[in-house]
Specification:
Serine/threonine-protein kinase that may function as a signaling receptor of extracellular matrix component. Binding to pectin may have significance in the control of cell expansion, morphogenesis and development. GO terms for molecular function: ATP binding; calcium ion binding; polysaccharide binding; protein serine/threonine kinase activity. The protein is an alpha+beta fold. It has four domains: 72 residues, no CATH class; 160 residues, no CATH class; 109 residues, Phosphorylase Kinase, domain 1; 239 residues, Orthogonal Bundle (Transferase(Phosphotransferase), domain 1), CATH 1.10.510. A seven-stranded mixed β-sheet has the order 3-4-5-6-7-17-10, with no helix packed on it. A six-stranded mixed β-sheet has the order 26-30-31-29-28-27, sandwiched between helices. Strands 8-16-11-14 form a four-stranded antiparallel β-sheet, with no helix packed on it. A hairpin with a 3-residue loop joins strand 27 and strand 28.
């Protein structure tokens, strides 16, 4: 017995000494190149960066360290610029970035002006989309960022942006409020994988003729680290136009601009031993990572050193008397002399005495009884495990139900008289929807929006549905989700998307809609392959159906509803090109005695009512303005925001064209090729009236629906025109520039507008 104890003690001591040697080897590893400075000020230098000749991989990774009383490392991205390094690691480099106020010029009576910048970060450095955020500081401004063409610096696609208003509070607000939530300052995520990108900032103030100029003509744009909050230090008044402000920003970096395979083939491969190479996205270089079981700097020849798993805190790798022995990149478990290392019945490792055959036979004979007991215990244990698992799953579902607004939805139900319609909304299980979408497979995605994705699903009964799944759930999105369920459950209209049910027991809320199979109006108007399929007759009918749905929401629903996000991408089309209005996340019911809703400005660039943007008061005429933009899209097939136009906004572009009698010049070629239709100038005039800057001068959706319904009737009964210059109706001649005559003659005959058939719920 004493001999066995001595053997165990010696064995334990040897294992401890070996583990300490591996631990010392690991802690001695440096992140800088051997023989080179390892620190400047309080910043540790990480190779391939380095200070001094021969200490960095190439010139792009050179760091200079001044010799002042407070040394600071300086990074030189190119020959003209430099930036102070605040921290560096194997993945990111945190720098002290800078910006100056941007001021606008060339204001027009439309109240719009913007400034554009093209960023071309020096490879292999780029702004990190995970560690940075995109910030705009200023009064009544919009800022957005887009992927730019590498050859001519023209924006291909605007990816992200935000809006900042001041509501008359001015810059003094920033002195006491450090948040950045849309008043004086706005922020959003920085897009992923942008090598060359454009940032555009503009003033969104809109005023009638003779109004005052904007109160502020300057703003600031930042790409700052995500936890930056010192917004109070910035003053973007015109007097500080030459002032420079500093803030922290995070850069990604990679090696070269070739792939791992090309680097190996070329002979300048930078990854050391015990490491692997990972290609960067878009082919912009590569990075190195230590293999599993190793830790350190993979860019040094021997930078990746073995990790001693046996010395890790709270190590439970080897159990029941076994000793952990470290190896290069791994470990194994061993036992003292006289013991064997084996698996027990529960597949846990243990050290067991090496007993003779006689004892083994005794164990075998008694093992049958023990096995029976173990089987009974396993059955009981399995049953208890399943019960606990079921209880845990039910608790998790209850947690998700509360998180996803179940209590808020119940509160909405209890406070309204329309209880029956809400209670009829079907509640789906998460298992049912996972099976319907093949576990939310990427191949089932129908579309993506700012808050989530829409999947095509096939339910057990064979019916096809569209399932909307949120990406991230915050308090505002939960309110929008509950609001959409509550509103759509009370609506039954052939041109408004039908809500079939929802799921509240998943991690994020899910909505189940009827499936509308023919994509969106935006897709058919702006996709070159599909625009030709929309004849003028189809476009006029789609416009009439959208107007009928909105008129129903405003005037005929049991409780008036403001949509608040009318746009062509929210108009679905079925196989017969029937229009269906969707996406009611921002919609709000409004009492009959109220004229407007006062809310934080929300919506989509290009469709926002200028009055709503300026005052924060949303009315039914704000929906009319957005519908006017959709009418302009139907007539022109132009995108709402485009850098190729002198006027970025389609609304401004359309109003100016109508003012200058240039309707023919902006009409879509497909419409022009059909020959002139008598309803086209009337619809153009209707769009012009919808886009008036003053909401009081715009028609109601009820009036618009009646006009479009009469125009469709007139289009079918009157002879079609073939001249591209003028047309004759009832003995009177009209030019395409004069767009009000047809409407006045044939549409505005009745003071009372009857409820059209298309509005019937």
């Amino acid at each position: 017995m004493v001999m066995q104890m001595i053997q165990v003690l010696v064995f334990t001591t040897m294992i401890t000494i070996i583990s300490l040697l591996f631990s010392l080897k690991e802690t001695a590893a440096s992140m800088a190149k051997p023989g080179c400075p390892e620190i400047c000020g309080n910043v540790s230098i990480v190779y391939p960066f380095g200070i001094g000749k021969g200490c960095y991989l190439d010139k792009r990774f050179e760091i200079t360290c001044n010799n002042s009383s407070l040394p600071r490392p300086v990074f030189h991205p190119d020959e003209e610029n430099e930036a102070e390094v605040l921290h560096m690691s194997l993945e990111f480099m945190r720098i002290r970035d800078w910006t100056s106020p941007v001021c606008y010029a060339n204001y027009t009576s439309e109240g719009r002006s913007s400034v554009q910048f093209v960023f071309n970060p020096l490879k292999p450095f780029s702004y990190s989309h995970t560690e940075n955020k995109f910030i705009g500081i200023g009064c009544d401004i919009f800022v957005y960022i887009g992927d730019s063409n590498t050859t001519n610096s023209i924006v291909k696609n605007y990816i992200s942006g935000c809006v900042s208003v001041c509501n008359g509070q001015g810059w003094s607000w920033l002195d006491t409020n450090y948040s950045c939530s849309g008043i004086g300052c706005c922020q959003t995520t920085f897009p992923e994988d942008l090598s060359i990108f454009e940032i555009r900032v503009g003033n969104m103030s809109t005023w009638a003729d003779g109004g005052d100029w904007p109160s502020n003509q300057c703003s600031l744009i930042l790409i700052a680290e995500k936890n930056f909050s010192e917004f109070h230090q910035f003053d973007v008044s015109f007097s500080n136009v030459n002032k420079t402000y500093f803030y922290p920003s995070v850069l990604n970096w990679a090696i070269g601009n070739k792939s791992c395979h090309e680097a190996r083939k070329r002979g300048d491969y930078a990854c050391g031993s015990n490491s692997r190479c990972v290609n960067s996205k878009k082919g912009n270089g590569y990075t190195c990572q230590c293999n599993s079981g190793y830790r350190g700097n993979p860019y040094l020849p021997d930078g990746c050193v073995d990790v001693d798993e046996c010395m890790e805190p709270n190590n439970t790798l080897c159990k029941k008397g076994a000793f952990c022995i470290n190896t290069n990149g791994s470990y194994y478990c061993n036992c003292p002399y006289g013991y064997l290392y084996r698996d027990d019945d529960n597949h846990e490792h243990e050290c067991a005495r090496n007993k003779g055959k006689l004892k083994a036979a005794i164990f075998v004979s008694s093992g049958i009884g023990i096995a029976l007991v173990l089987i009974i215990l396993l059955v009981i244990g399995f049953w208890l495990h399943q019960e606990l698992k079921k209880r845990k799953k039910n608790k998790l579902k209850q947690k998700f139900f509360k998180k996803n607004g179940g209590l808020l939805l119940q509160q909405q139900i209890s406070s309204t008289s329309s209880i029956g319609s809400v209670e009829k909304t079907e509640l789906y299980t998460i298992e049912e929807l996972e099976k319907a979408t093949d576990n939310f497979n990427a191949s089932r995605v129908l579309g993506k929006g700012g808050h989530g994705k829409v999947y095509k699903g096939v339910l057990l009964d064979g019916s096809i549905v569209a399932i909307k799944k949120s990406i991230i759930v915050d308090e505002r999105q939960v309110v929008e989700f509950v609001n959409e369920v509550f509103i759509l459950s009370q609506i039954n209209h052939r041109h408004i998307v039908k809500l079939l049910g929802c799921c509240l027991e998943s991690e994020v809320p899910l909505l189940v809609y009827e499936y509308v199979s023919n994509s969106t109006l935006s897709h058919h108007l702006h996709n070159q392959d599909h625009a030709s399929t929309l004849s003028w007759e189809k476009r006029l009918r789609i416009a009439d159906e959208i107007a009928g749905a909105l008129a129903y929401l405003h005037s005929y629903a049991s409780l008036a509803i403001l949509h608040r996000d009318i746009k062509s991408s929210n108009i679905l089309l079925d196989e017969n090109f029937r229009a269906v209005v969707s996406d009611f996340g921002l919609s709000r019911p409004i009492a009959n005695e109220k004229t407007h809703l006062t809310t934080l400005v929300q919506g989509t660039f290009g469709y926002l009512d200028p009055e709503y943007f300026r005052s924060g008061q949303f009315t039914d005429k704000s929906d009319v303005y957005a519908f006017g933009v959709v009418l302009a899209e139907i007539l022109t097939c132009e995108k709402v925001i485009s850098s190729s136009r002198l006027e970025e906004s389609l609304a401004i572009h359309f109003r100016l064209a109508m003012k200058q009698d240039c309707l023919l010049e902006i009409l879509d070629k497909v419409i022009v090729d059909e020959g002139q239709k008598v309803a086209i100038p009337a619809v153009a005039n209707l769009a012009k009236r919808c886009l008036k800057l003053s909401g009081k001068k715009r028609p109601t959706m009820r009036e618009i629906a009646a006009e479009l319904d009469k125009l469709r009737t007139m289009e079918r009964t009157l002879p079609q025109q073939t001249s591209l210059d003028n047309y004759t109706v009832s003995g009177r001649s009209y030019s395409y520039a004069s767009t009000s005559a047809v409407t006045e003659e044939y549409v505005l005959q009745d003071q009372e507008f009857p409820k059209p058939d298309s509005m019937t719920a």
